[in-house]
Design a protein that fits this description.
Distance between the termini of chain B: 40 Å
Structural class of chain B: alpha/beta
Structural class of chain A: mainly alpha
Largest sheet of chain B: 6 strands, mixed
Helix content of chain A: over 70%
Number of strands of chain B: 10
Oligomer: heterodimer
Order of helices and strands of chain A: HHHHHHHHHHHH
Order of helices and strands of chain B: EEEHEEHEHHHEHEHEEHH
Strand content of chain A: under 5%
Strand order of the largest sheet of chain B: 6-7-8-3-9-10
Chain lengths: ~260, ~260
């Protein structure tokens, strides 16, 4: 009974009551977690000190989200270029892209961030704006991860597709752009979404270079009031709300891409 | 080029000339010094056991598979010559695959229009008109806006044929076009191919459809172990094969 696959909708409706399977499939953990978050939030609001702390830390959400979105868009572009390099027949493109990917993946994110702010930024006279360094660091670091996601997607497309395109006279570039990439992108949407969530969490590392994002504000508030419990509870619940909403979005994406055509 | 080999039969001058083609995969020699001419307007069938190199030979014609040695000439152009634009050659050599290989993210009409637009640089209107005419010709005009997954195998293969025809090919290559099809769909694809043959299209077909060979093929080539064993009119190769290997192969195929 448990091994009913979600794709065989026709069989399900024919053989068993619909409510049963949809109940089974409901994300109970998510509902419970959501209710828990609402209760904790309500409790925090009723306490005046907690409400103040929460309000202060909340001020960092905007910057965290903006930094993540900007860095992620940059990482999508860097990753696409590097990913195309990784599958390129051109040895220079391949080796440059591989070097970049391996170096970045071999470094801790925090080290990339510190290096960007304290080594690269001073060289170009830009250390005054740590948020920019942070965006650059996140984009470079995640560009490497996304490159591998793209590469896996591209390599998952059957060889016959490229052969059919080439046999119609399309160039290698046209084949990639019109045939391979559109199919590959559809397949890698869920992992791309997961990396967006991961980057949102990693944006907390920018507190180490003094960017006033969510985690940094929680640290400031904690050291000001000596109440780290409240400060980091506030930060934690705000992160949870953000990541849960996003992972819900990724699940929807997953469902849509897996039920769609190939 | 030269007509040293006596093939008195057919129609025009050679449009495809292959000389001394060899192709190795690891330790196995898939093609062993194969030479073959295909003439304008000719329907040539290549038969042989699996692993005999027939598909590899077909794929060498448009350089989808690069031969290790030998020469391919299509319509006067030697493919290995420096500066030859393979994309321009392939544009006019249609190819139909065993597994159809329609583009799943595009509708049927988009499948047929894409290469017309970006390779042949035709206008959207002209591309669409050609696509619709070809869909009608292969008998599935009403499926223009469907996606490939919504079609049966036979319908998909007919779309694939239409997609190749849209590039106005000089030659059509078929790589086992019916072997992934359910039996009841084979005929609809073969009928389309038969029409093409009657219109004078030059066709090279890797297939075991003996009935089709008798009805449409001018010549049958029997391959085994990377070599051409025997070649001739279908009646001669099927009914009166010269070689034991051909006879053995035919007895196995015809039993089924």
């Amino acid at each position: 009974m448990g091994e009913v696959s979600s794709s065989s909708e026709i069989n399900q409706t024919a053989h068993r009551p619909l409510e049963r399977t949809s109940l089974r499939q409901a994300p109970w953990w998510l509902i419970i977690l959501g209710i828990g978050i609402v209760f904790v939030l309500l409790a925090m609001m009723r306490n005046e000190d907690y409400a103040k702390t929460l309000g202060y830390v909340l001020g960092g959400v905007g910057l965290s989200v903006v930094i993540t979105v900007v860095a992620y868009v940059a990482a999508l572009i860097i990753g696409l270029i590097a990913g195309l390099g990784r599958v390129s027949a051109n040895p220079i493109a391949y080796h440059v892209a591989t070097l970049y990917v391996e170096v970045m993946r071999g470094l801790p994110m925090l080290v990339i961030i510190l290096y960007t702010q304290f080594v690269i930024a001073p060289m170009i006279g830009a250390q005054r704006n740590p948020a920019l360094s942070g965006i650059l660091a996140l984009a470079l670091g995640y560009g490497a991860y996304l490159a591998e996601v793209y590469r896996a997607g591209i390599e998952s497309i059957e060889r016959g597709q490229a052969e059919a395109a080439r046999s119609l006279g399309m160039s290698a570039g046209q084949t990639m752009r019109h045939i391979i990439l559109p199919q590959a992108l559809r397949r890698v949407l869920p992992p791309l979404g997961n990396d967006f969530i991961a980057m949102l969490k990693d944006s907390s590392l920018l507190s180490a270079i003094g960017v006033n994002e969510l985690t940094q504000l929680a640290r400031i508030e904690g050291s000001r009031t000596f109440d780290y419990f409240r400060a980091f509870n506030s930060a934690a619940i705000l992160y949870l709300i953000l990541t849960l909403l996003l992972s819900l979005g990724v699940r929807l994406l997953e469902r849509r891409t897996s039920s769609g055509r190939r | 080029m030269d007509d040293a080999k006596p093939i008195p039969h057919y129609i025009g001058t050679p449009i495809i000339t292959m000389k001394g083609i060899s192709r190795r995969f690891g330790h196995t020699l898939a093609l062993d010094n194969v030479s073959l001419d295909v003439r304008r307007g000719e329907v040539l069938m290549i038969v042989g056991p699996s692993g005999s190199g027939k598909s590899t030979l077909l794929r060498c014609i448009n350089y989808l598979e690069l031969p290790d040695a030998g020469m391919v000439e299509i319509d006067g152009v030697v493919l290995s010559r420096h500066g030859v634009d393979l994309n321009r050659i392939r544009e006019h050599v249609g190819m139909v695959f065993q597994r159809f290989e329609l583009f799943p993210h595009l509708t049927v009409i988009q499948n047929i229009m894409l290469a017309q637009r970006i390779v042949a640089k035709r206008s959207p209107q002209a591309s669409e008109q050609i696509a619709r005419d070809l869909l009608a010709k292969v008998g599935i005009g009403e499926k223009a806006d469907s996606y490939p997954v919504q079609l049966s195998g036979g319908q998909q293969q007919r779309v694939a044929i239409a997609r190749s025809l849209a590039m106005q090919p000089k030659v059509m290559l078929f790589d086992e076009p019916t072997s992934a099809l359910d039996p009841e769909m084979i005929k609809e694809v073969l009928d389309v191919m038969l029409d093409l043959a009657r219109e004078g299209m030059t066709m090279v077909i890797v297939s075991h459809e003996m009935g089709f060979a008798r009805a449409a093929a001018n010549r049958v080539v029997f391959m085994d172990q990377g070599r051409i064993v025997e070649m001739g009119a279908p009646e001669q190769v099927f009914d009166n094969p010269h070689h034991d290997r051909t006879r053995l192969f035919l007895s196995k195929v015809l039993q089924h």
